[in-house]
Fold these 3 entries.
Entry 1:
Amino acid sequence: MSPNRSVKRANLTVWGAAGLFILGLVVASSVLIASMRATALEDANAQLNRYVSAAEAGLNRTFLNVDILLASTASTLTTSVQGGDWPTAAAGSALLARTARLNLAVRFVAVVDPQGRVLASSDPRGADMQLTLPADFVERALASTVSTLVISAPTQSVASAEEVLYLARSLKGPRGESLAAVAEMPESVLTGVLTQGAQIPGLEVVLEKGRGDFLIAVPDTRSAVRPGVIAPLNEVLAAGSTPVWSGGTRLSGQQGQVFARPIIYDDLWVSGSLPLGIALAGWHSDSTVVAAVTAAFSALILLVAYFFTQYLRRIGHARRALAQSKAQLDQALEAMISGFVLLDNQQRVLHWNQRFDELFPWLIGMMQPNVAFRKVLLASAAHELPDIDEAGRSGWVEQRLMSQKNAVGSLEEKLLDGRTIQILEHGLPDGGMVITYHDVTDMRRASAEIETLAFYDPLTGLPNRRLLLDRLTQATTRSQRSGQLGALLFLDLDQFKTLNDTMGHEMGDALLLQVAQRLRAGVRNVDTVARLGGDEFVIMLNDLSGERIEAAKQTQRVSEKLLASLEQPYLLGTHQHQSTGSLGATLFGEAPQSAGELLRQADIAMYQVKARRGNGVCFFDPQMQTTISDRAQLQTDLKSALVRQEFVLYYQPQWCNDGSMVGAEVLLRWQHPERGLLAPGAFIAAAEETDLIVGIGEWVIYTACNQIESWKDHPQCAKLQISVNVSARQFRHPRFVENVLDAVAGLGSRAHLLTLELTESMVLDNVDETVARMHQLRARGIRFSVDDFGTGYSSLAYLTSLPLHQLKIDQSFVRNLGVRPTDEVIVQTIIGMARNLELEVIAEGVETEEQKQHLLDYGCTFFQGYLLGRPMPVEALCALQPVQDSKAE
């Protein structure tokens, strides 16, 4: 086809496309205008939905606060009087005044009899207050068998001459008589809730009953609405309408959008209405703009079509010139000794030479003009990375493309056949790229052989002294900059000379090879294992803790792991050989030190181990060695203490408010043969670092259960509860439940006398597993208590799902009673919450009579602390006053 004919056909295509585009634009604008109208209505509905939902939430919150105030009136009046009787009218009114003062939504709260007479009120007049309630209002509140909130119609208050609502809930008097708790709520309070956030012009808001009674309207035009004009919501919704519908607005009756939602009380609905004219006000102006823009774009399309046809004529001439240039370029590229690929600014292949096909023969079928270079890389990855999955190959390609965008210098690629290809990438001004590929295999092999001879041990392949010193110098500098310490371990094999003398140097070399393999396997990739010569090895540990003691512990653990590995038998030919090593350790990174000085310190420490007959580790710092040794010795002594039965239990009594002892908490003591009787603070931390705490915890539970069993015929102690603290590590042990069930197997029905105390953090860690374990033990009768309650972040939802019996108020709150008001509020809240959840509350750390009296005033019934008894042996506990029947049973 001739160039002129091709250009003519292209022109016809352009003008046809322009016409179709204009037609589509007109159709799209028509659809857009219709869609904008629908969107305007949807936005109006969404605004109504958001506003009504917010109003509903505000009304529910307001009514619910008043409901809670009324529902708690009886408990407010009874909790202040011993025996559950009611206070006097004056005292009750004072209580109501303090309670009602916290709720700004009500003007007053009063308790009335069935005849409407005031028995007590939060009003300053107290029981002398004259209250005029709507007819039958008290009767409606008392008529329901279940106490519910009753709301009156708007009524004019006699005292203030303003519109108010009365809310009431039935309650029982001290002798079981029916009374009502009544609250007066100004209508302006609900009007404020309805108008809060109402920024929608023309909005009509109504709080109404389903049968059509309007309680509150904004704007207040209820008196202008004629009966029968606005249909009740019950009729509207019964006719099949959804909570959002199009129809007459609830106040003015205009055509518009209406949204209604019920609130949680007394068939009350809150509705929002928006007239249609207001809802579509913005749509009229927007549709005019759309029409004007459509006309402008149509003109622009015609103009673009004209200029594009002119451009097509010029591009035809350019193509002919480009074909001539390409032929010349192809001749030059085929003469290159390096592989060559040319990419355009879209990273597509424009050209490549024959040398590229020779270097990468598996890509011959893939290379095509305009193929995406990403596909070329994916094909190369599939060939060169056969053991990596598709996701891994894609990641390799993305990394390769990212480095290509920021190409600086050269990179090398190692092929499966062992060849090394050097890749040079150069960006072009138009965004394209020239990539050349050079085969540098022979040069790299020669370089690698030279480096190996210079820096690595020829026997083991480990870094030699030269490379070690270089890495150690860099590591010390990096450690001082990052703040993370490092460690240098100097290892010398024990009795290696004897092996060489008796079995020959070949066996010695075989042992050194296996030692090198074990050392490499025992450290991380970031660490270095080097051989200095003979049987001397150096291990450099990087990126340890920034704290010196913790870094030493980490070094100790690695050292012990390496020594244990070296102790395993070696197979040397047909002979089995046993060998050990001596390790000297020193830390670096705190202060500038030379590599030679660090090696000297580690060597000195190693010879200290040699002096102690080897097979051990020693730190260069004597004080640090002492600290770590003491910790290790303490853990060793703890293991022996379990075997020698050096642990004893002390008991701190727990008391009821009537003066009877109801139980005791067991507290662990260690009767150390040299240091005497030790409190838990001296050894529990060391036990919790290992599984020793599990064995100790099992012993405590078994001993406590045996004590319960021994008390069954003891009249003073038969009903005592014993509380045992459980550590997190013990509770998470796989056999915890089985061990506890084994311990209580002999108690029979007396298993309920064992209480396990858990901390808040332990309970909230993996809640599902915690609940499952607690229910398994609860089914056997074992009780649970949350220790130190209030110091964590307990969720009420989790708290209610746990099979608990008791909350234990932390002593930090008890200590500040009468001193810090916030702690008093926390204690009252814990006691109130426990009462609502039907849980016992025990306060620990009670040390003064004033603290105990505060707790009694707040309703706490169980106590523990030095005021009532210090931890004591079991014999002293049984000698206390006789036990009376109590809630502990």
Entry 2:
Amino acid sequence: MSRISATIRITIGLALLAVTALLAADGFGLVPDARRETIRGRAVLCESVAVHCSTLVGIGNIDAAESGLKALVDRNEDVLSAALRRQDGSTLVEVGQHAQNWQKLRDGRSTASQMLVPIYRGSRPWGTVEIRFEPIESAGWTDLLGHPLLRLVTFFAIGCFGVFFMYLRKMLQHLDPSKVIPDRVRAALDALAEGLVVVDQKERIVLANEAFAKRIGESSKKLQGRLLTRFEWSMDASNLEEQASHGFPWSRAIETGSPQLGEMLRLSSGSRELDLLVNASPVLGEKHSKARGALVTFEDVTPLKEKQAELTRMLQLLDASREEVRRHNKELQILATYDPLTQCMNRRSFFEQFESHWEKAQADGDDLAVIMIDIDHFKLFNDNHGHAFGDRVLKHVAGVVKDRLEAQQLACRFGGEEFCVLLPDATVEFAAEAAESLRQAIAVEEVDGARVTVSLGVSSRKLGAKTSEELLEQADKCLYVSKRSGRNRVSLWSEIPHDVEVDEQSAPRGESASVGDSISAQGLAALVATLNYRDPETADHSRRVADLAVAAAAVEGSLSLSEIRLMEVAALLHDIGKIGIPDAVLHKASPLSEVEWETMNSYGAIGVEIVNAAFGNDHLTRILQTYRAWFGGHPDDPAMPRGDEIPLPARLIALADAYDSMVSARAYRRGTSSEAAVSELKKCAGSQFDPRLVEIFSRAIECSYDESAEDQSALQTTPTAIGSAVERLAEACQRNDLTTVRALAGHLVKVARSSGADQIAETAGNLEGVLESEPELEKIFLLTDQMLELSRKHLLAPGVSEQA
């Protein structure tokens, strides 16, 4: 059993003496009695009420007396009830439940809670006023504990104990510890993990415990009498200037008489340096005139500082790695805007820039020219020499076009063998010269001994086009005129008669030019960016579906350019409704419940509402409403259209969506082969898909299939998704947002595993395990840094680094 220290025993004795004096003062009546004052106040109130009632009774106004008693009861919380009783005992007025509250008085004398006051009419007794109050006496332990005297005594005892204890403790610090401090107290000080030193006014050590002595490397007895300032101290760099000008913490404590808390010092002890957190309190003299010394504690925070330095270093590494991953992500995002074979812009990025240039030209009144280019007899190159030779032809044409581009001009691979060149602020005459120069340059150089020629069509904004789609339609029709007129030539929109038959499958001029009028490039980009941020995998899927649908439309051949563009927009947005599905449902790994399936199946309707509100384009809305319809009739929804009632773009998107879903890997399965996916589409021909379009789609897949391009596309999709997730995870780790880190780690396990990035999946799984147990920042930072390094290597996979 531990013994109570002498300081506490003395403090308790002094506190009890003070409480005894207080109780004696109360016995002599020197302490105010709240109960007595309450009774006196009630008596005065009753006398006032009796006088008031006597006056009213004297004039016979009983109603006024009753009103006064009601007001008394209503306005005083202590008054429970009241009554006006005649001399013969009959009750004339009763307010509140007086009959239940009132108890018969002994000897007719009033109490603290029941007061009875006589009423006179003239000089004769008329009756009495009875007033029932809340009891003053204690009704239980709660009221007893709340008694004013008990609260005063309790506060006085605690206050005196605290004051006396602090006073005695300060006073005892003035004693010579070598003579006064008992061995048991010294042993207690030696047991402290903190170093403790007492210095006198001249900063000489009076007492040092074992913890401090061990850090210095000397015995505590040898330390007595030495100057504390003479040890090998160095200031913390963060407050070096302040400490250099004001001295050490204990020096300032003695000088100013105020505590100096939480200052860092570094002590050289042998071969190592210690980081110490120093607190110094002055030991004050008599009347607090001047400090006679200081009590100084030293907390060794060297391990903490070392860990902090290590964490800082790891944070810097994380930041550097994250910046590297971000840079590679940006490079891949740039690559995703270019055709991997020709390095020309792809259709999506081209249309975004085209719309910006179109709007600027309209606002400024400038001209804007377009050149459409088609390689003559390209199908023969593929049929006679193979797809590899066709790829070299495409690269040759693209190289010539890009070499002759000026700063603001854009080149796009518009279709299989079609290219489009945008010339901002260019007249049709300038564009015609540029087109002729391109035609001659392409024809001059042979590809593996074969002569390559192109047909070109040229139009400009000032030739009557009201929309960007109409301008492209004009250039495309000029291109058909060039091909029908013998190929290897340039045709201008201004030179084509209005009644010329351009192509039996192409729409007449202006027929479909308005289909895409209301499609805002900025609005489309905003929605695609939103989907990409919400679910990058779905956004990548949508882009692939758009490419597949456009390739199939080119083979099918009956859609105009504006209709193909509208179909491409619909494909990009066909899954936009998923932004309205909760994460818990959208990314759930386990099977969905019936309610969750209902939520998941609602994303189609959500997407239609979003797109209709954003663009208000009936054609676009109709495509999104019907692309899930079955050609032979939907088994679960007979009301949906069937057969040719389904718009052609919707039927093409359905095929592209199904194909990409089959060939793409998921967290729960690997993707199937292209051949197997096409075979499955053919099995569903006639029931779910249009049989004619299934054959066209399979030919489009065969024509556009290129192994290197497919590999390049995969490298631009999966690593970007992984790199983006790892980058967000590292950012959350730097913010110490462990909840987000845990969620992203689980997501990375699924994505990396499905794409074959097994090392990243394993590291993310290890991070999940650390977060599920007792999270240690050092381990979390280490695993995150490993994932960043693995992600960087994944982003620099063969083929990607070369392009980047």
Entry 3:
Amino acid sequence: MGMASGNGGRKAHQDLESNEATLDHLKPSEMDAPTLAPASSLASPVPDSVNPPLQTFGDYQILREIARGGMGVVYQAKQISLNRIVAMKMILSGQLASEDDVKRFYLEAESAAGLDHPAIVPIFEIGSHNGQHFFSMGYIDGPSLANILKDGPLAPRQAAECLARVCDAIQYAHDRGVIHRDLKPGNILLATESASAAMLNPLDPRDQTKHTVGKHTVGKQTATNISVANNAVASPPENSRSKSRVGPLRAVDSSISHRKTTSEFPYLPKVTDFGLAKQLHGNSELTGTGQVLGTPSYMPPEQADGRGANVGPLADVYALGAILYCMLTGRPPFQSANPIDTIIQVIKEPAIAPRQLNPSIPRDLETICLKAIEKSPLKRYGSAREMRAELERFLAGEPIEARPISAVERASRWLWRHPMVALMGLVILFATASVIGIIYASNRRLETERDIALVAKEAAKAQSLLAEKRLEKAIGAVDQMMVRTASERWATRPELQEERQRVLEDAVAFYESFGDENEQDARVQAEAAKSQMRVSEAYLMLNNLEASLKAAQKSLAIYERLIHLFPKSPNYLSAASEVSMAIANTYALSGKYAQAKSNYSFATELAKLALELDGKDRSFQTRSVEAKSHQVYFLLATDTAAGQAALQDLMLDARKLGEQDGGEFVERLTFAFALTVEGAYSTSNNDLNGGARCYDQAWTVLQEISGLPPPNTRQAAQYKYTRAIVAVQRGLVGSLRGKSMQEKELGLVQMQEGIELLDQLLLVNPKAFPYRIIKIQTISAR
């Protein structure tokens, strides 16, 4: 009805963050913001059978749990056949994992499995055992970079050395068509007991110097340490060692000399967690357009605003720059109290220059960092290889190729961030010129003043358009998060309800923070009305029907004022009809059917007026059919004769709408609901064949749009409610008409599917009268 981590101490895997982490609020002390991932990938609680102590799992003996995230759980395990220690990752939901969970899990494993590089955690085996999907990988006995940075920023040379090695690994992945898309300190593990660390920067065996990074101290490696590490991390062949102090980095750019410098960074960084990886040469995407994936503080603008098609290798270059920024300053370039504000900062705001936070940072290293995190991909380094070459030049004491931004560029960016000040300066400049013109050329005074007015007007117009576009992007990002929280995964998972509550409350605060309905400008009032509707949707998802109703009524009052001012505007009439429908739905959920019927009638009248002004607009046609469907639904229950007459008019319009080509989600859903109304009438008049025909056609339409994203949360609930009704009635009619036991049993299965959909709706709105009544009636009918 339209209402519708383990006890591993400093072990690296302790900080492993799952690709499916939730939208946690950021805290200033956190080095890594959580990863944003689609709600469909959030897993169920791990079964007890997955985590017993010292369990034998195929060829592995599980020793202990060392990390747990939103999608996966990681164990330290011993591979029995090869007698080596490995890390083993399993899907958190075990045998209950959805198809998307499994696809994403194997995408992570397969993306990393094709990469054989000393600075990438190796994948040893991918498979499943007794229905439990897993993959094993190198065990890294050391902290993550995020753990190191909790103690403060690194020394500049340590940061440059560490990132140069990570750049080498990322370029290696890019050359093989894999983009990581979730680089951050928590996904860079640091090997402390690895012979390959000595390969990268060999130390004199007699050197007893201890290297310090933050509060972590690493001394000379022992033979025992190396033996353990060789079980954990695959090392290059012996003949590949000691050829250069740069080690495997030399493969990145043959034009760079192999400089022999004493290493100041005693760890070997290893990149892990390819759960959000994108493969350039295949269809590896599991996400839709507009979804925001990644970690807000480390994602580039093209990833933050949901433009997934634009996320390429330069997105990883940006993340590398953000990691360097964090290593130099102790904090990411952008962080705020919640993910929404962080995303807006990433899209709109410039980063603070690192030397303002830490004056000891060399200017060349700051230049490298700022170039990598440019908003425009075209202004960044063209590849991780180029960035690594710049870091090598810095470490060797050679001039870097990147140059700090000029005074002119800095001034232009400042003016872009302060448009009103720039506009005032422009007006003052031309005003001064006009005074000079009066003194020296009074005959040109009027022409000068006219030019000033035109320039000021055009500048103000350009700034206004730019501000509107930025606001639209911010609203779009929040709307996407709202739709995600309305999904089945978020609505039906008890452990996510607290997080879901916070996201929705943040959305309410965001929508209410702009737009004043008392403004005289019609556009401002219309935006205020839309904001109130978004607030209403959020409260409906929070099961606060009273607050949802009040917000919708505020929106309707604004549209009624606009209709009074602009009676010939079909847009305001259609919008008011939609809001009145929402009010009626909320009344129906509360069991106040008289008020619901009145508002459905009002919505129908408004939609009719809009259609009379512009009968060719398909959105107005859709709104009219939707309003009529609900009105007829109530008429058939109270006034059969009037309902039957209205039903004929409704189905005439509905079939015209359904026969048009290129129908979008709302059009097709509206047509399906109209068919359910006709089916209900046929069934109530013992026309089971007619009812079955209507429900089968409605079911086909719903199946066709099942993969399309709903435009808002109300339409998402409307889809689920319509599908539940069709499943229940289709199953009931099928059982009554069925001649064989098999046909009757199929009908019972369809009815059960409808009951499960109603249960999902009741999880969001447990007191909703229509859902409860229909569920009770269906159970009785079965």
